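Standup notes
- DV: blocked on the single-chain target, sequence here:
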Amino acid sequence: MTPTSTARRFTGAATMNCLAVSFVIAMAFAISSFAQMAGGSPELQQKLQALKQASAANKQRLMHYQWVETTVLTYKGEDKPPKQDLCRYGPNGQVQKVPIGEPQQQQQSGRQGRLKERVVEKKKEEMQDYLQQAKSVISLYVPPSSQRMQKAFEQHNVSIVPGGGVAQLVFKNYAQPGDQMTIAFDTATKKIQSLDVNSYVGDPKDSISMAAQFASLPDGTNYVSQSVLNAPSKDVKVTTTNSQYTKLAQ
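- DV (later): unblocked, structure below
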C-alpha cells in the first residue's frame, strides 16, 4: 500500500468520524430543544407548579372571608355613582354578592321627562347586559385556574420572562382563542403581584382588557385590591376596589 493511499484512508476515516460526532451533537441539541418545547424549561415548570399550588391554596383561604366591593363605572370619561356589594364565596366556589344600599336615581317629571327616562333606562339595561358579559369573561381569569394553567402548559402556550425575584408568566389561548394573560409572581413569597388580561366579548374585534393589582391580608392571604376593566368599543371603564376583609364565623 502506497503512502498516498494510506493518507487518503486516514483522511476519509477522520472525516467520517467528524461527521459522526457532528451528527450526534446535532441530534442531542434537537432532542434537548424538543424536550423544552414539549415540556417546557425546568425553570418554567418549577415556577408554574409553585403558582398553581399558591393559587389553589389562596382561593381556599379566601373562602373564609367576606369583603366589600366598590365599583365605579366611567362612561365616556364621566364617573357614575359608586356601587357597593358585600361579597363572599358560596358553596359552589363562586362569589356571591349582596348590594349595600342602592344609588339614588333622579326622577324626571312630565311626558318628555318620562320618555327620556325610558331611553336612558334602555341604554342602561344594554350597558349592564354588556358589562355582565364582560365580567363573565374576566371571571375566567381571576382568580387564575390551576386546571387552565396546566392545560395551557401542555399545549405549549406558556412562556416565562425572568426578572429578579418576580417571574412574568405569559399564557396565550388560556380561556379563549387568541387571548393573553400575564401574571407577575413573586417567587420568594409565593404571591401574585399583578395580573393583566387581554381578551374579548363574543367577537375578537370587541376587545377588553383588565389590569389587577394584588395585596395581602395580615395572615398572608392574597387578594385583588383593585382592578380596572377597559372596554374600548363601549367607551367604558370599570374600576373595582376590594376592602374591609373580615373572617367569617366558623
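- Follow-up: The helical segments are 3-39, 42-62, 110-138, 146-154.
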